[in-house]
Amino acid sequence: MRFKRYTAGVAVAAMLASVAPAQLATAQTAPDTPVAGQLDPSAEQAPQRSTPVAEFDLAEGLVVLVNDVPITSYELRQRMLLLIAMTQVQPTEETLPAIQRQALNSLIDEKLQRQELARFEVNIPDEDVDAEIAMTAQSVGITSEAYLAYLAEAGVRPETVREQVRVETGWQALVRGRFGPRARVGRNQVDQTIQRISAAASRPQYLVGEIFIDATRVGGQQAALNGANQLVQQIIQGAPFMSVARQFSSAPSAASGGDAGWLIQGEVLPGLQTALDNMEPGQLSRPIPVEGGVYILYLRDKRDGSSTSMVNLRQVMIEVDSEASDEAVAAATARLNALRQDLTCDNILERSRQEPDLLGADLGESDVDDLAPQFQQVARSAEVRSISAPVRTPLGVHVLAVCDRRAGGPTAPNFDEVENRLRGQQLSMLARRYIRDLREDAHIDFKG
Questions:
Q1: Cα Rg, the chain, nearest whole Å
Q2: Residue 180 contacts by C-beta under 8 Å, 6 or more apart in sequence?
Q3: Nearest CA to 310 among 386, 388, 348, 364?
Q4: Within 13 Å, how many C-alpha atoms sit on residue 17's CB side?
């Protein structure tokens, strides 16, 4: 049985990335001042050097009870070592509290997930765990044995990796099984999203990586800001952005290494927009405080929004030449106004054949800029599947059916791509709500 892979192994694959250290920009005053320097968080390669075991001390014993299931100091240390190996965030006096907090949060979630998997009798067999680890190792060109040996050099035992892969794979299967039918996306929702993308095709767009530190999970806004500052410094020093995002970010994009996709100017929070406007591709922002937490942005690319806009039109017209009287134009306009109330994209051509002196035509898909000037405003602004008011041209009086609209060019998403993206967002939201509800209902007893 194969599942979409959001496992810890994927994060380890990304942490094997080679990242050129960024340098601080000269201006360092405003929170949204970018950090200069070229990053390549998507590059992946096999490890070239050993990873020393991080040095830190934890008191032996019980750390937390989660519904009477213990988390021990051994488990916490193992998870911290795995987190350090995944992200290459160095365990310093400043970063250790954030590493420990993140490791403990992930262990609590994992205990709750494991309890749910047992309740619903979801079992992931050893061969599926082996396959997940093998796929992760293969993605960076090494064997499973070399992959586990790399982690072992960092002090992470193979059983720690295997059990995390098992629980995360099972959790994704459980979420899809329970909530997949609810993550439905209607055609209207997809059409509206495509329309929004098309309408924004002329505005600047940004390909963004994001990390969001949720203040409620780290002890408040100041703690979130302090933690974000530490993460920025670690990324500057070489920690791969994708790996840090996977492990520390609370945004839905964390599962994909912080990949937020293309964002459109004016459709992000004002503070984030200010940062993006001042950044160049390859730059990392400073921490950006927002309500409820702090963002770190990585601008992977940007474009000026010159994508073409494509529209699919059908029309019915009455021929009225440019020399016709005002009365003739008014009569044609009145006739089409009376007819348009009953027209749709589906019936406009058939209706045009049923009445004399009406000419129907399927104009197909066209670049809006290539249309007659009189048609362009309708093509750009009318709602999809709407019927326009009568439009006068030198050839006659027309009524247009706007049957589809999309962004043109190779980067324009098609229907299936938008549908899958929206379904994934809904499923991610349901998964976050699921674990949040489990936490709220759980008895979590911290033992200091």
A1: 28
A2: 427
A3: 364
A4: 25
Q: Locate tokens 């090494």: which residue?
A: 142
Tokens linked to 364: 């197909």
What would the pLDDT profile of 202-254 be if each residue is shown by its tens digit? 788 899 999 999 998 888 999 999 999 999 999 999 999 998 999 999 998 88
Q: Is the dihedral of CA 294, 297, 303, 304 positive or negative?
A: positive
**Residue 350 one-letter amino acid:** E
Buried b (16+ CB within 10 A) or exposed e, 82-97: bbbbbbbbbbeeebbe
Running DSSP on this structure, what letter comes out for residue 391?
A: E
Dihedral, CA of residue 102, residue 104, residue 106 and residue 112, to nearest 10: -150
Which contacts of 264-272 are long-range, i.e. CB under 8 A and separated by 24 or more positions?
264/197, 264/200, 264/203, 264/204, 264/205, 264/305, 265/200, 265/203, 265/204, 265/205, 265/206, 265/305, 266/203, 267/200, 271/31, 271/32, 271/295, 272/297
Note the maximum CA span of the chain: 96
Angle between helices 187-199 and 415-441 (to 10 degrees): 110
Alpha carbon distance 371, 34 (integer Å): 42
In the DSSP assignment, the letter for residue 287 is P
| pTM exceeds cut of 0.90 | no
Q: Where are the alpha helices (DSSP H) in 302-407?
A: 326-340, 348-354, 373-381
Contact assessment for residue 3 and residue 20, using Cβ atoms and an 8 Å cutoff: no
Q: Which of 107, 117, 123, 118 is nearest to 66 (CA)?
A: 107
Backbone angles phi, psi at 216, to 5 degrees: -70, -20
How far apart CA 410 and CA 404 sit, in angstroms, is: 18
pLDDT in tens, 390-446: 999 999 999 999 998 887 765 667 889 899 989 988 998 899 899 999 999 999 999
Q: How far apart are CA 211 and CA 228, in angstroms?
A: 9
Q: Which two tokens stand for residue 366?
A: 């066209």
